[in-house]
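Message: A physicist's question: would you kindly supply an amino acid chain plus fold tokens?
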Amino acid sequence: MAVASRLSDDDGLGARSLTELVVRRLRGEILSGALAPGERLVEEHLTRRYQTSRAPLREALRQLGEQGLVDHLPRRGVRVAELSTRDVDELFSLRDVLEKFALGNALDAGVVLEPAQLTRLAEALATMEKATTRDDPLARAEAHRRFHVELVALAGHQHLSRVYEPVILKLQLYMATNIRREAATRSPMDSVHRHRRLFDAVASGDYAAVLAVLAGHGARVYLPPEAQDPKDRQPS
């Protein structure tokens, strides 16, 4: 499997199969901005680029579709997912509501979570910091998504997590874009510091403090103005 070996060397991700390698390469190009929202993904071009057959490529595109990163359009092929301004606004708003509900349940009546309950959240934060330090945008974006998934998981509410995960997957491209643009204009560690403040507030068990941090979390400050939260927009 010379192709798989070459791809593995390029990615440095230790993937277990050719399909997984293609998934990771494509996801990396999407989240890095190399492939823009709305851009068509032509099978013939991608098989040549990755030196692979159509079968693993199609399976990779199917998986990326489930993750909300590509859209399969009848008779028009596949393209990088593109959400309207209204879609982005509604999904971010829904994410905010679900996170507040989850943390309200997790910290009900001033409950202070045990350190063991915060382990996975702490691991996601540590991974985000390491990825930022080594300037690995793909690992940083994945750690960012995982942090928010683990945040909601603190509620111990399985159905809530099932509702939340598709929302965060659809927003992954836009969150990664936001973090990338923030890193280009400010210290790359600013995003890590914001998530550490949220982690510390959750660990304190003070729900009012959690709400205050969430209000200033800046989920989309560096997206185009029309996709920002109104309170984050800079005056013209």
